[in-house]
Predict the structure.
Amino acid sequence: MQIKKVGVIGCGLMGHGIVQIAAQGGCEVIAVETEQAFLDKGLARIDKSVKKLASKLVEKGKKSAEEGEAMVAKTLASITGSLDKNDLADCDLVIEAIVEDLDVKKALFAELGGICEDKTIFASNTSSFPIAEMAEASGRKQRFVGLHFFNPVQLMRLVEVVRTADTDEDVFASARAFGEACGKSPVSCKDTPGFVVNRLLVPYMVQALNMLERGDASKEDIDTAMQLGCGHPMGPLTLTDYVGLDTTLAILRGWKDRYPTEPAFEVPALLEQLVAEGKLGRKTGEGFYKWDGDKKS
Ligand code: 3HC
């Protein structure tokens, strides 16, 4: 099945980016939020981002000024905002990008199972929760995948396409093709904790936090070491700020509950402490570093 009409639930950090790339990929997109203010904020971010991307393409000579304007107009015209999940009934694909709380996600998919037509494929953008549990809750295990995008969605080229033991081959192929249409390079993964990227990335961030806690090196030196020594665009502590300390903590806590004996999933005390202090990283203006919008100050 070719994905033409997409619903995205949640228009926050990840959701707004997914809405945008789906629209840029030629889909008609409905963005659903719980409150008008959240919807307005997400749509404003999309407006700013697509204009920036188009102007960069024009600057680099990859598009003419008219083509850039057309890209912006077409993308924005393909997006509709809504506060009503019933508007998603005839979507080919509905992607969930809401808060990382498994019970809330399961309840949402149970509700969507009753709203959407039988053809609709469901996907979760969860960072770390088991896809199979949400699939079970939705009542349509065969038509369920993980579609895990990366932050910032507009710029990161990967999407992980996650299948459970029950995912239909056709559904999996449609989800992969959707990822490609959005300009991403899909990788396939089984329904394992953290899939590929977060299973490697989060324990690496934890090691950096532990180094900082032990006083092995300063935060600046840890970050510089990984940037210059390994060619990473951001060091691990900057990246933890960028992803969000609360998000990182939620991933670790979820894993620790499920796999209490796995040493890689130990939660650093420093992470708990900073989150308790409200220092969540870029989104609150302070984590390991102080932030002014997207830049460290
Ligand atoms: N839309 C449009 N343009 C954007 C944008 C967006 N959302 N975000 C940034 N840009 C623009 C910037 O404004 C900038 O434009 P300018 O050159 O005109 O100022 C340009 O893109 C490049 O941005 P930067 O100047 O910040 O330059 P960088 O070269 O540092 O690129 C980055 C930024 C792509 C974020 C890069 O630092 C990077 O790749 N960082 C690592 C990010 C990463 O690892 N993400 C994955 C996190 S893990 C995850 O998401 C999983 C989750 O489950 C936890």
